Automatic annotation (TrEMBL), chain A:
Native source organism of the sequence: Streptomyces omiyaensis
Cytoplasm found in the keyword field: no
Keyword Nucleotide-binding: yes
Signal peptide: none
Protein name per its UniProtKB record: ABC transporter ATP-binding protein
PANTHER family: D,D-DIPEPTIDE TRANSPORT ATP-BINDING PROTEIN DDPF-RELATED, TRANSPORT ATP-BINDING PROTEIN
PROSITE patterns: ABC_TRANSPORTER_1, ABC_TRANSPORTER_2
Top-level taxonomic group: Bacteria
Family, per entry: Belongs to the ABC transporter superfamily.
GO molecular function, a single term: ATP binding
Residue stretches making up the ABC transporter domain: 26-278
UniProt keywords, alphabetically: ATP-binding, Nucleotide-binding, Transport
Pfam families reported in the protein's UniProt record: ABC_tran, oligo_HPY
UniProtKB/TrEMBL annotation, chain B:
Record protein name field: ABC transporter ATP-binding protein
Family the entry assigns: Belongs to the ABC transporter superfamily.
Chain intervals for the UniProt region annotation (Disordered): 1-21
Domain of life: Bacteria
Species for this entry: Streptomyces omiyaensis
Family matches, as SUPFAM superfamilies: P-loop containing nucleoside triphosphate hydrolases
From TrEMBL, chain C:
Signal peptide: none
Region (Disordered): 1-30
PROSITE patterns attached to this UniProt entry: ABC_TM1
Domain ABC transmembrane type-1 residue range list: 115-305
Family: Belongs to the binding-protein-dependent transport system permease family.
Transport recorded as keyword: yes
Keyword flag Transcription: no
Localization of this protein: Cell membrane
Designated name of the protein: ABC transporter permease
Main location: membrane
Matches recorded under PANTHER family: ABC TRANSPORTER PERMEASE PROTEIN, OLIGOPEPTIDE TRANSPORT SYSTEM PERMEASE PROTEIN APPC
Species of the source: Streptomyces omiyaensis
Amino acid sequence: MADFTNDEAAVAAALDVPVQRGEPILQVRNLQKHFPLTQGILFKKQVGAVKAVDGVSFDLYQGETLGIVGESGCGKSTVAKLLMNLERATAGEVFYKGQDITKLSGRALKAVRRNIQMVFQDPYTSLNPRMTVGDIIGETFDIHPEVAPKGDRRRKVQELLDVVGLNPEYINRYPHQFSGGQRQRIGIARGLALNPEIIICDEPVSALDVSVQAQVINLMEKLQDEFNLSYIFIAHDLSIVRHISDRVGVMYLGKLAEIGTDSEIYDHPTHPYTQALLSAVPVPDPQARANRDRIILTGDVPSPANPPSGCRFRTRCWKAQEKCSTEQPVLAIPERFRGLDTLAAHESACHFAEERDVVHSG
Amino acid sequence: MSTLNKTATVPAPREGAGHTGPLLEVKDLHVEFHTRDGVAKAVNGVNYSVNAGETLAVLGESGSGKSVTAQAIMGILDMPPGRIPKGEILFRGEDMLKMSDEERRKIRGRKIAMIFQDALSSLNPVLSVGYQLGEMFRVHQGLSKKDATRKAIELMDKVKIPAAKARVSDYPHQFSGGMRQRIMIAMALALEPDLIIADEPTTALDVTVQAQVMDLLAELQREYNMGLILITHDLGVVADVADKIAVMYAGRIVEQAPVHELYARPAHPYTRGLLDSIPRLDQKGQELYAIKGLPPNLLKVPTGCAFNPRCPKATDLCRTEIPALVPVTEQDGADLPGRKSACHFWKETIHG
Amino acid sequence: MPDVTKTATAVEDAVAPPSATEPKGRHKPEKARSLWGDAWADLRRNPYFLVSSVLIAFLLLVSAWPSLFTSASPTTGDLVKHFLGKPELGNIGSEGWFGYDQQGRSVYARLIYGTRASIIVGVCVTAIVTIVGGLMGMIAGYFGGAWDAILSRITDIFFGIPFLLGAMVVLQAFTERTVWVVVGALAFLGWTQMARVMRGAVITVKQADYVHAAKALGAGTTRILFRHILPNAMAPLIVVATIALGGYISAEATLSYLGLGLASPTVSWGVDISTAVDQIRVAPHVLLWPSIMLSLTVLAFIMLGEAVRNALDPKLR
């Protein structure tokens, strides 16, 4: 991996080199974010930390969609903010085309931002209510004037509106004149404006009505093919994540519990948390439901300020033993599956990983 | 009224048992809101009924009028801007809309209780949960402070809050989301109502907690033989617990059916579209089916069938004539009990 | 927190979004409606706004060109009219209708010329405290950390000083108390309220996703502050400033009455009230007229503030 240099122009130039399909475009290594808990008014004293993200590693390959699922408080949204450099990582690296972007600033960071964009969860708060749609999307060109020459911007904004399925004549309207689904399309158009390679989507459809969710998901899939995008798709809805993702990572309390292809995770889960999560998903099919294996977890997610020792899931796990409280399981292919030609052989952070199908009835 | 521990095993005999027929019946209910942009017709002639021990799920998206209907039943609609120009809400055969405020207040909480989506904002943050639970008994049953606290602990046990005795003097913010929702359920149950209206009770909760809370609600409902109206947008949650489902769109019920039949054979294009647009958990699937267009603007509900601009089957008939909610039958004319559809082309939809 | 955030209330549930139901292509001529535009449309229909703005426009006109309204001088008295103070009720329309004061000066002329002092104090103090306080609040709220700690403590210290008492002490230090000295004294103590309001609003706005979105696009601090934060955090500041304006006018009158604000020969309602009190039994009208003017002016600004609050309050929208 290339060394981090302070020559911002060189960094910027290096980022323009394309990545081949199937190569990793983003490599996350041991990413951590600890929010300090402080006391005191003027002179603050740190008394602890909320370990929102505590050592997460994964790769994103060019052209794929990596889904990240987990319950509230598991740190998935913080991961998004760290990847976008909206929060500074406490430790760990994010390599984009070999460059660690967690410590960049100034021009080099701005160059990275052209290539990594974000779509936000709440279409009601992610658009400035006092700006017109044209200004919201056009602002990207004010910030990055090299992307579109001045006279060309209005036309470009209208093109973008058309691409996301909105009437280009709506350019002068304000966000509150649109419905939730339409606003999310505006948010997507803004994310596309700089022609990025990676889009990080933080719960992009969870605030939308069911009938509109499908439209937006289809749009995102269409855009991925059209513009050769790589997505990191963060959501709590497991069905939607399966639908859109090539690979899926399951997070629990700041760590990845299990990661693999969609079939590996959904059809052959080996981590007990993944199994419980999948089995709890209400399925709109009462017949299938009756025959499904159901695991109802007891208790709540522990506080990330004071996570359990050893395996973080052990307080709610039905398999927990002595070993789980003393030894932290690493995210790797479990020994018993190593070298076997089975879909269960994927990375899972459990001492007692075993397969259990909770998704299919019968 | 009997105490909780007595009713724990045997369902209490219900007051007003002389009334036969449904526990609650909503007839041709209309609700509108006067806004500065015009009159928003939120509910346009809704009919449904719930029996004791039965769960009716009201399914709809935002703006379908599902929550507004519930608020009208509870009598907690903001009026103005809201207005009920037409309709009846019969509780044990008596029209609640014609009752005095005093009579309605007696029903609210004691006979009909409500559970809201956001438990944190529904509980008073400066009072302990024990105090808030006990308040129900002190105010309505005149119990002493000590007895009320004892009852509060019983209720917390009932909704399976661990270490109820130790936690009774804790404040709402000290509980997790799932636990707070349990406290809300305990509060609704306190006076052993005949009917509970749950408005998106699990929407704000995580999947693993959702299942716990839904199971608890279903269990308690069976135990107390209550009627339950479950308002939700989540087709998955509904499938688990409901007996029958009413699907709402633009302030009208477009389809009504027993739960299994609705999922197996929808009789309205909107229901079918909704079911088809949900991705599956057990297989990857191809491109999602998406209902085209946008949810209706209640200030300008389309003429005829409100779903017509988004419907793949729409004809000129749909654009001019409002379809009535009519019984659905088998192809050979045999009855399908409890099934109704408000589509001109229900035959083609269910059988085609 | 919940991922499906549907906290919409019944009304919102029912009327949101008042947007295009029309499918793409078949577009209707729905005009672009900005939030400011909506607020303005609301204001225009508010009778309180109409009444107060007419009144304020009139006061501004009077203070800018007092000679348009009277030809008499407020400072030269005709001792012949000394204590002929009673209004000549038969003479409606003439200056004598308002009567004359102890030194034979026209009460009407003094009312007209006194307007300027009140308006200058009100408008200037408000302008200074809004800019200074707004800036302080914005810096404290946006940058947080040490900035916030230091600025907020300074604000707290100033906030601890009783407003009128503090102004009295400050004014004691000046022998010649012109309008500008009074403006300075009031502004010196008044900015804290604005700083607090602004800080709170900025902290709320900076957590909005559109601010994150702008950062994610690579927007600089200046752009974020002035394009995204300021326009969305300004509404409460405007409301508080409008209402406070009336307060500054009455503060000036109070100080002048106590002999610590403006003093003769400067013409001001406060000064007039102060001198008229001595003759309250002989000539009550000399006290009455400036008091009425003062109350009306303060009322007008408070009414305007209320109307603006109603128009800008996002909860009513």
